[in-house]
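Good morning,

Attaching, inline, the backbone tokens for the sequence recovery test we're adding to the shared suite. The designed sequence is right after.
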């Protein structure tokens, strides 16, 4: 397998998008897809944040892709108007897209194309601009920022402030590098810790100025400027030992009023430079990925002897459960040296006493639930399906808690040596949703990811709920997830797709989930890469 030449960071912006919303503007998001090589089959690589009420968005989140000089890498940038919390884009309005190759982008200083609704048919409005940069600098600026006495821009209530950090582009242009969260109804906000790569912020040049803009979020107009200031990155580093303050200046107010002083003060409580390690840094540095499988044996799957059952093994030896185990396991097994994978079933009556179990070893050995390789899991599943009685209910929390115990043991080692991936395959009719919510919130504090593959044609609303982005999922006590660790995919979306597509989609989130955990714990790779000479 050829190694990528380099990693590329893509900055995306749009202009003059279609407005699909009544009474407000579109809420656009950009999805980056790559051709699988099959006819019109694409897999998602990354997506930006959603920008609310904006027809000409600048996306703060950078899209990352490996660049292979020797390959034609076909990419598609899809722009969607997002009107709900689901990650399923089929529920959202498509504003248009652009197909191109990565080579076309990297060979252009600025790549701009009009949006198309489909190949050869222009959307009529809107274009997308992509700027590519090679990622060479692994450093990131980590800042803690707050503001005091900001101007109130709202007639009812107080301003809803957020920060935007811009780097200096060509000429007088500024390029968006980072956008913070919005603090509602607060003139003295404290923002969450900001982490932004030095490449995005200043191209690695500490003497370069950046612009910091403080804005008031307005749902009807997008945002209003409260004030701004420019400062060299090196000046921010003075906050290593002391708080530094900057006057937040609104240029128009300064011109009009002689008595104008400022529109508030922005304070940098701390600023430090950290190395930003990648998924490959951790894996090549010795991190093992431990793969565990949980299989749903509840009665709602149907009698395994019936061709209508989800557990029915067809004459060619497959069903959706086996396909999911094989496709995901084939990828994950390469990152585990001993190739011993614990595998469990839940929701069945098991021999010899026929008690219902929500966490039984697939090989029926409670003292050693490990299977040798992916083939070992498949063999154990084939044996189990003819030796258990499908029953119920469908409880996820026991198996999540089981894997969490191992992840918690690894967390206590305080090294980046182990990470756990739990694959749950189910027909989706979950019965312990509240307990599962609690289990996921606890697991989000641990070195662990959960992949849920839904088989069959059930309503998977509960699964979509568990796959809550942006901290939506909360425990019964209201505690939000620390990290987004759940990825849900319905198998039916991949029935006619290439066999690799399922694994590529369900595993797409794991690398950044792994990195986010070790970053949250401030843990470098066990054997960090040596810096380039």
């Amino acid at each position: 397998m050829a190694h990528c030449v380099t990693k590329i960071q893509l900055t995306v912006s749009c202009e003059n998008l279609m407005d699909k919303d009544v009474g407000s503007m579109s809420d656009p998001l950009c999805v980056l897809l790559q051709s699988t090589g099959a006819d019109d089959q694409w897999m998602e690589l990354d997506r930006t944040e959603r920008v609310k009420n904006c027809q000409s968005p600048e996306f703060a989140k950078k899209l990352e892709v490996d660049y292979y000089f020797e390959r034609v890498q076909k990419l598609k940038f899809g722009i969607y108007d997002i009107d709900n919390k689901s990650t399923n884009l089929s529920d959202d309005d498509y504003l248009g897209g652009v197909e191109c190759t990565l080579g076309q982008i990297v060979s252009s200083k600025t790549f701009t194309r009009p949006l198309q609704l489909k190949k050869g048919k222009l959307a009529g409005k809107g274009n997308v601009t992509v700027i590519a940069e090679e990622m060479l600098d692994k450093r990131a600026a980590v800042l803690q920022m707050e503001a005091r006495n900001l101007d109130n821009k709202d007639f009812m209530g107080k301003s809803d402030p957020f920060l935007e950090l811009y780097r200096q582009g060509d000429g007088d242009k500024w390029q968006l590098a980072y956008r913070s969260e919005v603090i509602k109804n607060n003139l003295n906000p404290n923002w969450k810790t900001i982490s932004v790569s030095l490449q995005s912020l200043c191209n690695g040049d500490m003497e370069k100025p950046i612009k910091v803009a403080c804005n008031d979020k307005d749902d009807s107009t997008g945002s209003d400027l409260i004030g701004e200031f420019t400062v060299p990155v090196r000046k921010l580093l003075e906050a290593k030992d002391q708080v530094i303050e900057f006057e937040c200046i609104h240029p128009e107010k300064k011109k009009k009023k002689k008595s104008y002083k400022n529109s508030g003060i922005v304070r940098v409580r701390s600023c430090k430079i950290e190395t930003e390690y990648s998924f490959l840094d951790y894996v090549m540095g010795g991190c093992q990925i431990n793969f565990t499988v949980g299989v749903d044996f509840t009665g709602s799957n149907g009698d395994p002897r019936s061709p209508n059952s989800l557990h029915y093994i067809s004459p060619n030896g497959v069903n959706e459960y086996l396909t999911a185990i094989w496709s995901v396991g084939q990828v994950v097994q390469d990152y585990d040296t001993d190739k011993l994978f614990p595998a469990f079933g839940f929701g069945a009556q098991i021999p010899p006493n026929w008690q219902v179990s929500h966490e039984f070893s697939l090989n029926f050995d409670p003292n050693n639930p490990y299977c040798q390789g992916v083939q070992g899991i498949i063999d154990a599943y084939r044996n189990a399906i003819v030796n258990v009685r499908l029953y119920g209910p469908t409880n996820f929390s026991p198996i999540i808690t089981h894997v969490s115990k191992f992840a918690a043991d690894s967390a206590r080692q305080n090294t980046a040596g182990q990470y756990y991936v739990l694959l749950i395959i189910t027909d989706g009719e979950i019965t312990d949703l509240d307990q599962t919510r609690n289990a996921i919130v606890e697991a989000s504090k641990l070195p662990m990811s959960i992949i849920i593959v839904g088989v069959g044609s059930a309503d998977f609303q509960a699964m979509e709920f568990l796959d809550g982005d942006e901290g939506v999922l909360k425990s019964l006590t209201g505690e939000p997830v620390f990290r987004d660790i759940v990825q849900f995919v319905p198998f039916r979306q991949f029935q006619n797709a290439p066999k690799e597509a399922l694994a590529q989609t369900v595993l797409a989130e794991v690398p950044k989930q792994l990195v986010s955990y070790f970053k949250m714990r401030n843990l470098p790779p066990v054997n960090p890469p040596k810096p380039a000479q």
